[in-house]
Amino acid sequence: MTKIFGHRGSKGSFPENTMLSFHEAIKSGVDGLEIDVHLTKDDQLVVIHDERVDRTFEAEGFVKDFTLAELKQLKPSSLYQSFSNYHPTWELERMPTLAEVLHLVETEKVDLNIELKTAVLSYNGIEERILETVHRLIRSVKVVYSSFHLPTLVRMRNLDPHAELAWLLFQNIPQLEDYAATFQFSHYHLEKSLLIEGNLSSEIDVTKIRAWTVNSREDINTLLTLGVETIVTDFPERAIALRKDCYALEQC
């Protein structure tokens, strides 16, 4: 059965990459969460998508220029007040650490995809810090590490020969299977249009594909029928309902 992962939690309905968003995605019944990790000024692992805090918090600057204590003081951006289900308690949300999210998924028994945000900025030692934290806190759930930055994945492989790795791609790469074999990738993490538009080689095993970010009903149904391993979506509740219907009608 195709898995459903909450993209930055339940990003379409709640403040992305917050504990609230993760809890809501889990409440909807997701099989896993997709998160993004950066390194702070004092070498702490925090969960946020952008290199800068400007878009999602009421502040300005690069994550790398803040200490963890400073980041924990930042309030969520006023942009979330435009969400239809906005509640004033959202103002209490703060940027999570990786450890906080790991405790959550270990408790709730949902899988985790950690994207290392190293394609724009270089975070010295981030790979080793993430692996140490995961190995220390995770015992019973599956963790896959992904990045757009191929050298990051090479370093991860050198540090942990058993780590499950995935290369994030938004364009077709010739002989993708050769990359997967050479670098021992366990998954292909592909932007949905590569699959919807049929640009990929027919030789690629769809059961190893995690497609992102799949939000429309039409696209979700298309990829469910295709039989991809995972759909990563901003609206996990919608995807889970469509999956239930698809399998009930034996169309998947």
UniProtKB/TrEMBL annotation:
<feature type="domain" description="GP-PDE">
    <location>
        <begin position="2"/>
        <end position="243"/>
    </location>
</feature>
<dbReference type="GO" id="GO:0008081">
    <property type="term" value="F:phosphoric diester hydrolase activity"/>
</dbReference>
<dbReference type="Pfam" id="PF03009">
    <property type="entry name" value="GDPD"/>
</dbReference>
<dbReference type="InterPro" id="IPR017946">
    <property type="entry name" value="PLC-like_Pdiesterase_TIM-brl"/>
</dbReference>
<protein>
    <submittedName>
        <fullName>Glycerophosphoryl diester phosphodiesterase</fullName>
    </submittedName>
</protein>
<dbReference type="GO" id="GO:0006629">
    <property type="term" value="P:lipid metabolic process"/>
</dbReference>
<dbReference type="InterPro" id="IPR030395">
    <property type="entry name" value="GP_PDE_dom"/>
</dbReference>
